[in-house]
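TICKET: design request
STATUS: open
ATTACHED STRUCTURE:
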C-alpha cells in the first residue's frame, strides 16, 4: 500500500483542526465559564502544538548557520558568490516591490477604511485588554520614523553572537555565517578541508534531526490551529471582513499571478509543479505563522521534492527567511493606508510612495523582534505622521483579524523564498527539477 504523502497528512490535520476548533467554539460561545472538556481539549492541543513549534525552533539556529556556512564555503572562493548574492538581492527586491504595489492598488481600489460612522465608533471603542497589551508591548520595541529602520539594520552586526542566537535575531546570525563561510573558502588547503568536513558533518546531523521533527508535522499542525480557533471562532474573520479580504486578495494576486509569471518568464518553471512540491512547507508556514520555524521544512521540500541543489538552497532560503517578506510587506502597506482611510488622514501618492519604501525596508530583518509586524507598522505610521494615540487604537483594531492574516502572509513569504531558490537555480544551469513523484 502506497504511503500517504506528508502534505496530504498536513491537509487532513488542518481540516480536522478547523472542524473541531470551530465546533468547540460554537458549542460554548454562549457560556461565560467554559466546561471542563473545553479546557482540557484546549490544554492538550496547545501542548502538542507548542512541542512541535519548540522542536522546529530548536533546529532553526543550527540549521541556518551550518547551511549558510557550508553553502558559502563551497562558492566563496570563486565568482559564484558575488553573482549569486546579486541575483538573490535583485529577486528579493523585485518580488518585495511588486508585493507592496499590489497591496497599494488593492487598498486604494477597495477602500476598506471607508466605513459607516457608527461602525467606526464601535471599532474604535471595542479594543480588548489583550489587544491593548500586545500594542503596548510592540511600542516598547518600536522607535519613531527612520530611527526604527536604522535599528533594524543595526541588528545585522550583533554585539554578542550567543545573545543573538538566544533571542532569535536571525539577521545577525546570517551576517556572521556569511562572513565565516566566506573566510573558510580562503583558508589554506588542509585548514579549509578540515573546516569544511566539520561543518558539513554538523549540517548533515542537524538535517537528520530536522527530518525527524518534520515527520511529526501533521500532529503539530493540528495542535497549533485547533486551540486558536477554539478561542477566537469565526467572528474574528467577520468583524473586519472587508479589510481582511483586501489583504487576502492582495496576497492571492501576488501568489497566483505575480509569482507564477516570474517563474515562467525568469525560470521557465511550471507554477503548479512548484506549488505541489512546496505544499508541505506552505501548510506548515500557514500553521506556524513563522517563516523561520518553517525553514527546515522549506529546505527539505526545495531540495528533495523540487530538485534544487543544496548549494543554491542553503544560500538563498536562510537569507529569504529573514530578508524576503513579500506577504509581510504587502500587509504593512495595506494596514497603513487602511488606517489612514479609517481615521480620515489624507495620504497623497507621494506619501504612499514613502509607505512603499518604508514597507520594503521594515520587512527586512524584523522576524526576530517580538510582535514583528506590529513593530514595523508602528515605525511606518510614525514616519508618515500618525500621532501615538491614533496608532495605538489603529493597531489594536488590526489585531482583531491578525492571526488569520499572519498565517496566510507567512505562507506567501515562504512561497516567495522558494520561487527565488528555483529561479536562481535555473539561472545557474541546474536541471532535474520536480520529479514526477516527489516524496
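STATUS: resolved
RESOLUTION: sequence designed for all positions
ATTACHED SEQUENCE:
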Amino acid at each position: 500500500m502506497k504511503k500517504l504523502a506528508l502534505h496530504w497528512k498536513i491537509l487532513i490535520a488542518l481540516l480536522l483542526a478547523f472542524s473541531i476548533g470551530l465546533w468547540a467554539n460554537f458549542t460554548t460561545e454562549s457560556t461565560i465559564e467554559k466546561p471542563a472538556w473545553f479546557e482540557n481539549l484546549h490544554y492538550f492541543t496547545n501542548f502538542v502544538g507548542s512541542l512541535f513549534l519548540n522542536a522546529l525552533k530548536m533546529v532553526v539556529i543550527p540549521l541556518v548557520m551550518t547551511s549558510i556556512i557550508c553553502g558559502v564555503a563551497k562558492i566563496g572562493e570563486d565568482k559564484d558568490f558575488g553573482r549569486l548574492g546579486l541575483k538573490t538581492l535583485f529577486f528579493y527586491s523585485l518580488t518585495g516591490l511588486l508585493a507592496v504595489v499590489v497591496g497599494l492598488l488593492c487598498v486604494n481600489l477597495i477602500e476598506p477604511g471607508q466605513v459607516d460612522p457608527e461602525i467606526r465608533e464601535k471599532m474604535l471603542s471595542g479594543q480588548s485588554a489583550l489587544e491593548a497589551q500586545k500594542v503596548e508591548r510592540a511600542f516598547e520595541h518600536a522607535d519613531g520614523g527612520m530611527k526604527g529602520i536604522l535599528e533594524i539594520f543595526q541588528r545585522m552586526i550583533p554585539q554578542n553572537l550567543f545573545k543573538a542566537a538566544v533571542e532569535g535575531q536571525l539577521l545577525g546570525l546570517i551576517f556572521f555565517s556569511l562572513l565565516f563561510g566566506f573566510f573558510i573558502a580562503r583558508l589554506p588547503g588542509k585548514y579549509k578541508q578540515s573546516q569544511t568536513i566539520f561543518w558539513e558533518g554538523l549540517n548533515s546531523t542537524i538535517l537528520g534531526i530536522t527530518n525527524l521533527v518534520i515527520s511529526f508535522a501533521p500532529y503539530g499542525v493540528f495542535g497549533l490551529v485547533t486551540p486558536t480557533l477554539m478561542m477566537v471562532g469565526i467572528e474574528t474573520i467577520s468583524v473586519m471582513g472587508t479589510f481582511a479580504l483586501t489583504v487576502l486578495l492582495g496576497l492571492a494576486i501576488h501568489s497566483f499571478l505575480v509569482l507564477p509569471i516570474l517563474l515562467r518568464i525568469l525560470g521557465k518553471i511550471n507554477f503548479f509543479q512548484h506549488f505541489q512540491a512546496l505544499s508541505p512547507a506552505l501548510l506548515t508556514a500557514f500553521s506556524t505563522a513563522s517563516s523561520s520555524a518553517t525553514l527546515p521544512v522549506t529546505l527539505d521540500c526545495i531540495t528533495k521534492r523540487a530538485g534544487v541543489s543544496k548549494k543554491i538552497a542553503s544560500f538563498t532560503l536562510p537569507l529569504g527567511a529573514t530578508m524576503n517578506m513579500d506577504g509581510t510587506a504587502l500587509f504593512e502597506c495595506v494596514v497603513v493606508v487602511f488606517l489612514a482611510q479609517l481615521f480620515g488622514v489624507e495620504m497623497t501618492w507621494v506619501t504612499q510612495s514613502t509607505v512603499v519604501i518604508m514597507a520594503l525596508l521594515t520587512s527586512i530583518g524584523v522576524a526576530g523582534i517580538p510582535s514583528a509586524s506590529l513593530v514595523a507598522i508602528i515605525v511606518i505610521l510614525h514616519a508618515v505622521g500618525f500621532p501615538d494615540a491614533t496608532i495605538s487604537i489603529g493597531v489594536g483594531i488590526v489585531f482583531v483579524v491578525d492571526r488569520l492574516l499572519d498565517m496566510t502572509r507567512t505562507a506567501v513569504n515562504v512561497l516567495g523564498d522558494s520561487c527565488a531558490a528555483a529561479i536562481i537555480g535555473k539561472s545557474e544551469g541546474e536541471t532535474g527539477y520536480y520529479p514526477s513523484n516527489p516524496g
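CLOSING REMARK: Residues 6-427 form a domain with the Proton glutamate symport protein fold (CATH 1.10.3860.10). Confidence is low (pLDDT under 50) at residues 126-142, 367-371.
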